[in-house]
């Protein structure tokens, strides 16, 4: 078991007058710099980016929005494009174990030193402009991609699309992975409103793909209003499973004998189909071969997405944190043989729909370990207990102060034929990984 205390790496090569000397210090400061953790809007970030001459990059930009599947789609694109020989910058959020995971160039996470140097440049360029933690990270990604001279940047939208910091750059191509209810306090309480926000990453004449099989009409309306060529799952492209392989058919060609991007995750086929369609639409500038696509799909892995850890008892980690992703998790779990019991370890954020997620998870739960998340947005185990009671789920439930305590108890009370599923939030999975690896 590894310690969850971050390793301190000092940034040695920085200019004089540096505000902080370690990445940990920079991140702690950023968390308290702005008056609120989340504030949607482009003005502040755009002004700083303009001061740094980041708004018209030499590289091309693919922006990826959606409720679920954004990180997986970006990772697939990264693997395929790198296999084809392009120099790729990848920006993801949030991270699981280390902040450095958020920004990578050619498959290598950036170093503490690179991040500190970039934060210093941003700090000097912002003047008295206040930035959120996420805005700092987004600007750092764009700055580092320029420093590293990437060919193409893959940018995961953090929240929404229209007013997310990523949207300060005009996307040369856009992908929307799925639409469901999440972040309603910022995006609206229905799929049409949420779809409209996601479609804010569209640009005139720049191709866009939506891999959601039932997209809200608002996405189509936004594309029509902007003059964005939009390609839809089930209309412009179709995918079919064939045993342990699958294929995708578009108007231009059929992609056959494709490896599944993950063995026990049919939802990933939806993401993968959108990825291939997007690559087809940018092939004039960034051509990739069928072998590149097959290699990328075959090599796809992403921590926290149906991640299985070996051990005496099978442990599965998945960051499902809303109804749609919980449904996908349940469907995946039903395809995996389990001779014993399924023990759930669940921790969630305060602003999530606890009842919707817990109701889905109850389909496979033999026991519940609800845990408190200590972070500011995390909810306590007691709140999850109340949500379970309201759903008339009252048996085999225990509450714990943290994930580590829950896993310690389960270690003493599980059978080798059982399985443990850790889910509910990126933070829950992160704590689980820290406890297990």
Just name the CATH architecture of the largest domain: 3-Layer(aba) Sandwich
Across the major sheet, the strand order is: 4-3-2-5-1-6-7-8
Number of helices: 15
Which descriptor suits the 3D outline? globular
Q: Care to give the gist of this entry?
A:
The protein is 37% helix and 17% strand. It is an alpha/beta fold and 437 residues long.
What does this structure look like?
- The protein is 37% helix and 17% strand.
- The chain has 15 helices and 17 strands.
- It has helices at residues 23-33, 43-51, 70-83, 112-126, 133-147, 184-187, 191-198, 217-226, 267-281, 290-298, 323-334, 354-361, 381-390, 403-411, 426-436, and strands at 60-65, 88-91, 103-105, 108-109, 152-156, 173-176, 208-210, 230-232, 237-242, 245-250, 254-259, 307-309, 314-317, 342-346, 367-371, 397-400, 419-423.
- The strands form three sheets. An eight-stranded mixed sheet has the order 4-3-2-5-1-6-7-8, with helices on both faces.
- Helix 3 (70-83) packs across helix 9 and helix 3 (70-83) packs across helix 10.
- The protein is globular and about 55 Å long.
- The model is unreliable at 1-10 (pLDDT under 50).
Essential attributes:
17 strands; Protein-Tyrosine Phosphatase, Chain A; 15 helices; 437 residues; UDP-N-acetylmuramoyl-L-alanine:D-glutamate ligase; disordered N terminus; six-stranded mixed sheet; 2 domains
Please give the structural blueprint.
Blueprint: H1 23-33, H2 43-51, E1 60-65, H3 70-83, E2 88-91, E3 103-105, E4 108-109, H4 112-126, H5 133-147, E5 152-156, E6 173-176, H6 184-187, H7 191-198, E7 208-210, H8 217-226, E8 230-232, E9 237-242, E10 245-250, E11 254-259, H9 267-281, H10 290-298, E12 307-309, E13 314-317, H11 323-334, E14 342-346, H12 354-361, E15 367-371, H13 381-390, E16 397-400, H14 403-411, E17 419-423, H15 426-436
Parallel strand pairs: 1-5, 1-6, 2-5, 6-7, 7-8, 13-17, 14-15, 14-17, 15-16
Antiparallel strand pairs: 2-3, 3-4, 9-10, 10-11, 12-13
């Amino acid at each position: 078991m590894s310690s969850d205390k971050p390793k301190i790496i000092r940034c040695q090569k920085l200019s004089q007058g540096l505000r902080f000397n370690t990445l940990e210090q920079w991140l702690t400061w950023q968390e308290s710099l702005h008056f609120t953790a989340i504030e949607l809007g482009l003005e502040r970030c755009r002004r700083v980016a303009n001061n740094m001459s980041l708004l018209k990059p030499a590289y091309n930009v693919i922006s990826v929005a959606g409720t679920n599947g954004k990180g997986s789609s970006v990772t697939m694109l990264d693997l395929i494009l790198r296999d084809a020989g392009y120099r790729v910058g990848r920006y993801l959020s949030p991270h699981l174990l280390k902040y450095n995971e958020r920004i990578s160039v050619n498959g290598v996470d950036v170093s503490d030193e690179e991040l500190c140097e970039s934060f210093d440049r941003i700090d000097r360029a912002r003047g008295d402009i206040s930035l959120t933690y996420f805005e700092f990270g987004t600007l750092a990604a764009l700055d580092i991609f320029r420093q590293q001279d990437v060919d193409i940047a893959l940018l995961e939208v953090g929240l929404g699309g229209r007013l997310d910091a990523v949207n300060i750059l005009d996307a040369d191509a856009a992908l929307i992975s799925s639409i469901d209810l999440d972040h309603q306090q910022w995006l609206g309480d229905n799929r049409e409103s949420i779809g409209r926000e996601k479609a804010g990453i569209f640009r005139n004449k720049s191709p866009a793909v939506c891999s959601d099989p039932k997209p809200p009409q608002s996405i189509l309306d936004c594309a029509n209003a902007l003059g964005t060529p939009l390609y839809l799952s089930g209309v412009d492209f179709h995918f079919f499973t064939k045993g342990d392989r699958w294929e995708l058919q578009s108007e231009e060609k059929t992609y056959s004998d494709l490896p599944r991007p993950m063995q026990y995750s049919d939802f990933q086929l939806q993401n993968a189909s959108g990825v291939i369609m997007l690559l087809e639409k940018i092939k004039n500038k960034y051509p990739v071969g069928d072998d590149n696509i097959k290699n990328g799909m075959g090599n796809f892995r992403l921590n926290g997405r149906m991640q299985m850890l070996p051990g005496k008892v099978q442990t599965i980690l998945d960051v499902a944190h809303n109804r749609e992703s919980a449904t996908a998790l349940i469907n995946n779990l039903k395809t995996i043989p389990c001779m014993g019991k399924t023990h759930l370890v669940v921790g969630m954020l305060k602003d999530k729909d606890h009842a919707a997620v817990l109701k889905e998870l109850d389909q496979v739960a033999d026991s519940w370990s609800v845990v408190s998340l200590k972070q500011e947005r995390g909810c306590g185990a007691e709140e999850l207990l109340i949500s379970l009671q309201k759903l008339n789920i009252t048996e085999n439930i225990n509450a714990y102060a943290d994930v580590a305590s829950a896993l310690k108890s389960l270690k003493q009370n599980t059978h080798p034929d059982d399985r443990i599923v850790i889910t509910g939030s990126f933070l829950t999975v992160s704590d689980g990984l820290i406890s297990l690896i």
